[in-house]
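Quick one before lunch.
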Amino acid sequence: MGGTRHPAVIELDGAVVEVPVDDDAHVAPSRGAGGDRWRTIVGPLDLTLRERRVTVVGANGSGKSTLLRLLNGLVLPSRGTVRVDGLDTGRDGSAVRRRVAFGFTDPLSQLVMPTGREDVELSLRRTHRGRAERAAAAGRVLDRFGLADLGDRSVYDLSGGERQLLALAVVLATDPAVLVLDEPTTLLDRRNTLLLRRTLESLPQTVVVATHDLDLALEADRTLVVDRARVVFDGPPREAVERYVALTATP
Ligand SMILES: Nc1ncnc2c1ncn2[C@@H]1O[C@H](COP(=O)(O)OP(=O)(O)OP(=O)(O)O)[C@@H](O)[C@H]1O
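Model of the adenosine-5'-triphosphate complex:
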């Protein structure tokens, strides 16, 4: 861990995500050429991220998750492009997803097998073809995160925080170049939050994290503040957090 890998280069070029507007939505939509009404939920985004640690803050519904989902092609831009190390999320989708791992807020979106160990093995199926080899590699991943005991229990018998740590091990198992995490500390107590922060610190990967935890937001090289679908600040974490706090000072 903590190696000397070069950070990935993530380029968003005029990227916009639009969704059709419900007739009863209280929003100001734009009208498309065909008369359809659309609402921009994030963008336009013009960013080049080259930093190892990027955090994203913003109010509920501001567009953080959508921005994150653009990075591994879970969401494709309605206009513009998103590239990771030169790979286009639309054109080179599966190559991008092998490179960019995504950790969901709800760990049960990640943990689909009866036990965490089986989930880690599932992550490793592409890189470790033989059963015994895969089982040994899964054991090493669980040991590395101190999760060997939890790995054999039913995921439904684990606490929310335990599931969240296991889900992180599952996404890191394949050693992705980029780790994108959507609110990874929501279910964690203070001890496990610190454990997660130390784990993130030690990773050689590029890590992009959306969070409401302002202490975690500060542990970055660069922080984006998202407000009403736009990046309204992009720069040093401390100034970004001050900007976000000021934005949310009045209800
Ligand atoms: N597939 C979709 N269809 C329609 N609207 C969507 C879709 N995905 C997201 N939205 C809307 O886009 C806006 C931004 O959502 P997003 O999940 O990106 O916000 P967020 O900043 O991550 O919020 P939170 O902090 O609450 O998780 C919200 O108003 C949401 O309801």
